Amino acid sequence: MQALVKKLKQLQVGDTAVRRNPLFYADAQRELERLERGGLNERRQWTRDRLGEVLWPASRSGYGKSVRGGRDIASWPLLTKARVRAAPKAFAVGSRLFTIKANTGGTSGAPLDLVRSLPSVVFEQVCIDRMMQKVGVDARSARCAVLRTESIKDPNDFKPPYWIHAGGGNRLVLSSTHLNAATIEHYARAIEEFAPECLLGYPTSLEALCFLLKRVERRVRIPAVLCSSEVLHPRVWHAARETLGCRLLDYYGQAERVAFAYATAQSEYRFLPGYAHVEFEPAGVEGDCRLYEVVGTPLWNRSMALIRYRTGDLIRVPAAWGEHELEELALGLRTFTGVLGRDSDILITPEGVKVTGISHFQRDVANIVRIQVIQESAAQVVILVLPMKEYSERDRDRLMHNAREKLPRSMHVEIRSVTALERTARGKTPFVIHRPPVKELLNNTRAHGNIA
């Protein structure tokens, strides 16, 4: 099944055969549209009913049996990423037929192996299509430019072009690694010639594009922009609308598919009803606000028992909110200002280019418990590795290869095997650490838009 899915995704029929499979797509689309029209009682009842359908098969998984989980969500403990990573097979539910393997991006430095059911893959596409519809774009036919972390070419090769065409000519996939002051005119012309209806990008890449265009007093018309995977700062909302003249939507999710939220206006995010059963775990007080960790249970993926999964992502809400307000928030009837964090996992090159997709360093590298990336200076990066006993030179070489695919030769990369990773004063182990000179450089970039 996995090999077939991989092949189909390379073809135009992949959208229909996998992500928009007609056996599931229309029904899922109707459910989502009905819930978005519904009020509190309808959303609450639908979520409860669906949750019961998910919990029963999950209780028969190895994990479900070990924790004695039942049809009541309260009978299940909070689930950590570490527990899933330690024994992923214990979370398997039902047959592996018509399931798709996946893994997390590893933003914590330790990827998870996941299994998704075909209906859950289709529903995810329904949600993305719905987001595009909210900014006036037909996802099935739209011409889209993509500015994320795709490796288009060697990061040291600065000869144009810095893009490729895909999706039968309907996609212009741009390299974020090569985007700088010397290349911005090439990007501007390529985008104008392609005339996309929509740009799909990471916030840091969108920020770089907008500030570079503004620096050379250039404007490029892109009607709609969808962002994900990182924090979208207020300055970028403003810059994108001013420079691109676009409608902008930012959405939040995870590879585990346990929560989904979106915003079409700055600081007005709402959870998407019907996607997951969302809970909030108290995480502290900040002034007149309370912090909560997002905890989610997917309602469409019955192939993996990720019940009450702790995302590690925090949100901030008014301290005066009680159970009723939090329930309305979880069901998408109230807004919140956004997910905290997630913008620190970037590196900056000596040329001033922000490099995203750092979690890809560990992709397909075996025998590693976790990595930590430390940027000592603009030109020096150290990757700390917590190795397994089987860790070998071959694994190290693969890790170095992945890093070198993302970073230019102007950055020296060193890999060190360690017995412990660095911790913050609060005892946290961040995936990416910036030393003071790098923090100063990043702060200067954020404050003044100084992107090379």
UniProtKB/TrEMBL annotation:
Domain AMP-dependent synthetase/ligase per the UniProt entry, residue ranges:
168-311
What's the superkingdom here? Bacteria
Q: Name one Pfam family in it.
A: AMP-binding
Q: What is the originating organism of this protein?
A: Steroidobacter agaridevorans
Q: What is this protein called?
A: Capsular polysaccharide biosynthesis protein CapK
Organism taxonomic ancestry: Bacteria, Pseudomonadati, Pseudomonadota, Gammaproteobacteria, Steroidobacterales
Gene3D superfamilies linked: N-terminal domain of ligase-like
InterPro entries recorded: AMP-dep_synth/lig_dom, ANL_N_sf, CapK_Type1_Caps_Biosynth
